[in-house]
Amino acid sequence: MDGYSQYRFDPTRLRTPCYVVDVGLLRGNLQILADVKAQTGCKILLALKCFAMHRLFPLLAETLDGVCASSPHEARLGFEEFGKEVHTFGAAYSQADMEDICRTSDHILFNSCAQLERFVPMIMAHAAGSGKKIELGIRINPEHSEGAVAMYDPCAPGSRLGIRREQLQEELLAQVRGLHWHNLCEQDADCLERTVRAVEERFGDLIPRMRYVNFGGGHHITRPGYDLARLVRVINSFKERWGVQVYLEPGEAVALNCGYLVSTVLDLTKADMAIAIMDSSVPAHMPDVLEMPYRPHIIDSGGEGEKKYSYRIGGLSCLAGDVAGSYSFDRPLAVGDRLVFSDMAIYTMVKNNTFNGVGLPSIYLYEPEEDRYECVRSFGYEDFKNRLS
Ligand SMILES: Cc1ncc(COP(=O)(O)O)c(C=O)c1O
């Protein structure tokens, strides 16, 4: 079962809209990541920006080595709930951010030499005062794109992410022990292999000074067909050449194809084509569909006209573009039918919003071995009101 085409729970038993995370599928992904670790000795961090379901941190922490955080809040969540390494990177930090991050992070990564220079004394003073070991790293820009869409390509022209080689002030690197980059998005190990070559060409002379090198995220390791053997080769040969600890920090690969968004058909109308309106909202509950953009898969559906009954499926909000796409089904949809969108654990709960006052989906865990559902969280009016003033 690949999670694209199937689900194992009974969607009619769930109150919708809801996200459902299948713990059995998550264990499957973790096993693949554990194999990569065993074959390479690399460390793997969970990118919280993608999936931050802290209820599952104890399970994830059995395999993963910690988290990578993008903000003081994510760092605090990782520190308090994950209990392993916390690596924090921010495009820029304020003084208040840094005070927080010093408390919660054991690896702090900088996006510019100016910020590194500004905050080193504060971090050193904090470490000396608290006895906490804090390791410093820099994010570099390898200036090597692998064809990700510009929105998701930190090496695109004009990118503010990562220090370019010509901007690097080597005299500031005395305390720096980590080199980090991130340039991939849902990509395979051949893209990583070419990126590693580009990094070695531009930054190879710095690597011997480092304790670790972090290859970032965007490795689609748990996607069926991903070239695992090549990933293992790339990591092992890098380690042989440079003798450093390698880290990966995937988000998607951890919970890829492990979750669903279940919604219910509320109304069927007709415009210039048949329309179904569901009890969730695309911009509010699966914002990447509009941002990326992509057409999410609904299980048991086909493309428009592929099966006998076609519908344009849209959401609750007033946004004209609150539309998942056009789909077809073997039988006509009816009010009350469940629509199960696949691959909805990642970049959904961490990004959703209450635009139009639309309610947030509940969050369920599904334990397939016991055919057990648990509603971990549900949201109501207070959650909407509390973000407003
Ligand atoms: C710095 C960094 N690390 C890790 C990730 C996780 O990427 P993914 O979820 O594609 O693996 C991202 C995603 O944007 C990122 O910007």
Report on this structure.
- The protein has eleven helices and 17 strands.
- Strands 1, 10, 11, 12, 13, 14, 15, 16 and 17 form a nine-stranded mixed β-sheet that branches. An eight-stranded parallel β-barrel has the order 2-3-4-5-6-7-8-9, surrounded by four helices.
- The protein is globular and about 65 Å long.
- The chain folds into two domains: 11-20 and 258-385, Lyase, Ornithine Decarboxylase, Chain A, domain 1; 41-255, Alanine racemase (TIM Barrel), CATH 3.20.20.10.
- β7 (176-180), α6 and β8 (212-214) form a beta-alpha-beta unit.
- The protein is of the alpha/beta class and 389 residues long.
- Bound molecules: pyridoxal-5'-phosphate.
- Pyridoxal-5'-phosphate (PLP) binds at residues 47, 49-50, 68, 89, 182, 185, 216-218, 249-253.
- The site of pyridoxal-5'-phosphate (PLP) has 15 residues, from α8.
